[in-house]
Write a structure and sequence with these properties.
With 197 residues, this protein is mainly alpha-helical. The chain has 2 domains: 88 residues; 78 residues. Helix content is 80%, strand content 7%. The protein contains 4 helices and 4 strands; from the N terminus they run H-H-E-E-H-E-E-H. Strands 1-2 form a two-stranded antiparallel ribbon. Strands 3-4 form a two-stranded antiparallel sheet. The longest helix is centred in the last third of the chain and has 74 residues. The protein is rod-shaped, with a radius of gyration of 64 Å. The chain starts with a helix and ends with a helix.
Length: 197
């Protein structure tokens, strides 16, 4: 018996859903265009393989669709304007970034350079050239020192030889003077002796 009641209730619910009156304006409660179309299609009368729709109902649905399309077109136009504005802002910001990058590179170049005799030189180039200059000066100083030492050795040797030669000359002069004096004395003695005779 319970089964019979359940079966009758199910048949009644099924038959009412099959023979339920379709609401031709049910599509208006939907927000999405696709759902509106599917609800509109479900609520149409179907007869002999064709959908039957009243002209006023079709015009109303067309107006709603046309309004939706117009609204979408307006939104699309607004979005396109926003995209255009954003592209302009992006271009300005990219230009600003490019300008800032140039300033950064110039700042780094100035930070990594030093002004010498009115020229901006890279610090690495400047330090390398200064090290090479100092090394060159040290090599030149070493060369000059070696030349000085060699010259001093030659000068000392020459002075020593000069002193020896001077000493030898003085000695020779002294011996020559003694000899000259002796010869003159002998000559004088001999003259005196010859005069005495």
């Amino acid at each position: 018996m319970k089964r019979l009641y359940v079966l009758i209730i199910l048949l009644a619910a099924f038959s009412t859903s099959i023979f339920a009156k379709k609401d031709p304006n049910a599509w208006k409660s939907e927000k999405d265009v696709r759902k509106q179309y599917s609800v509109f299609k479900e609520n149409l009368n179907y007869w002999s393989g064709n959908y039957v729709v009243k002209s006023a109902q079709l015009d109303e649905f067309y107006g709603a669709m046309n309004d939706s399309i117009t609204r979408f077109e307006d939104q699309l136009h607004e979005r396109m304007l926003e995209i255009s504005q954003q592209k302009q802002e992006l271009a300005q910001r990219q230009e600003l970034v490019s300008e800032t990058q140039k300033k950064l590179e110039e700042s780094q170049r100035l930070q990594n350079s030093i002004s010498v005799l009115g020229m901006n030189l890279n610090k690495n180039v400047y330090s390398t050239s200064m090290y090479l200059f100092i090394l060159g000066v040290l090599i030149l100083a070493g060369f000059v020192y070696m030349m000085f030492q060699r010259s001093m050795r030659t000068t000392r040797q020459t002075q020593k030889e000069y002193e020896e030669l001077k000493h030898e000359y003085e000695e020779h002069k002294k011996t020559s003077l003694d000899r000259y004096t002796k010869i003159n004395m002998e000559l004088h003695k001999t003259r005196l002796e010859l005069q005495k005779k």
